[in-house]
Design brief:
Layout lengths: L3 E5 L12 H11 L4 E5 L1 H4 L2 H4 L9 E4 L2 E4 L1 H11 L8 H31 L6 H23 L11 H10 L12 H11 L2 H19 L1
Parallel strand pairs: 1-2
Antiparallel strand pairs: 1-3, 3-4
The chain binds S-(P-nitrobenzyl)glutathione.
The site of S-(P-nitrobenzyl)glutathione has 10 residues, from loops.
């Protein structure tokens, strides 16, 4: 039986790959695992049936037999742990790749989300114009360090891994801004990842959901 994930029936990003089921789809595509998708409206996400899978009423979730998971970090790790292709076999290299997954989610993503949230919800506040440069600086501090680490390498720690998948997914959230432009190696890193056939299949599948929903 193939696993089933949940995703937005009508994603607010119009299927441009920003909703977090993209990470899970991409991981599944990288390891060659077919999957089913159950689409949910915002109302359905908050209903008790979905909350038995996701305590916070969000997407994505992942179900495989008796196992139900939420949180993209846990889901992508589970997929990478169970299949070849996203984590190295060598124990040290594997631990390093997992470290990069956590770095993406715990160190790089939070300032990006804080900036995004301010832009979406605080524009009308008197202090917005003063706060935005502070939030920008916090994102740049992470990007500067990440760019310094990556240098001329293709991937963060050896070959492409779940750590790169997660880091790229986090950086992609900046594409609507010009923030990545100051770091040509990070822009190239994101482009390199987006060129992977598995990324393209995942992106196209997510876009197809929105296209079908908005034309039907
Ligand atoms: N930490 C959790 C994880 O990584 O799994 C976060 C999951 C999460 O934020 N899910 C969002 C959700 O369900 C969808 S992806 N939100 C509904 C809710 O909380 O009620 C976040 C997202 C949504 C929309 C865009 N967009 O339109 O650009 C981008 C990202």
């Amino acid at each position: 039986m193939s696993p089933t994930i949940t995703a937005f029936a009508l994603s607010p990003d119009r299927g441009r790959g920003l909703a977090r089921d993209m990470r899970v789809r991409w991981a599944l595509e990288e390891v060659g695992q077919p999957y089913n998708v159950r689409l949910l409206s915002f109302r359905e996400m908050k209903e008790p049936a979905h909350r038995t899978l996701h305590p916070f009423g969000q997407i994505p979730t992942y179900e495989d037999g008796d196992l139900a998971l939420f949180e993209t970090g846990a889901i992508v790790f589970h997929i990478a742990d169970r299949h070849a292709g996203l984590l190295p076999d060598d124990a040290t290299a594997r631990a390093r790749a997992m470290t990069w997954m956590f770095a993406a989610l715990n160190t790089v993503e939070p300032p990006i989300l804080a900036r995004e949230a301010a832009i979406l919800t605080e524009r009308d506040k008197s202090w917005y114009q003063e706060r935005l440069p502070i939030l920008d600086d916090r994102v740049h501090a992470r990007l500067r360090d990440l760019s310094g680490w990556l240098g001329d390498a293709d991937w963060l720690d050896g070959g492409f891994s779940a750590g790169d998948l997660m880091m790229v997914e986090v950086l992609i959230r900046l594409k609507s801004s010009d923030m990545l432009d100051a770091y040509p190696n990070l822009s190239a890193y994101v482009a390199r990842a987006e060129a992977r056939p598995a990324f393209k299949r995942a992106f196209d599948a997510q876009l197809a959901v929105f296209t079908a929903a908005s034309s039907g």
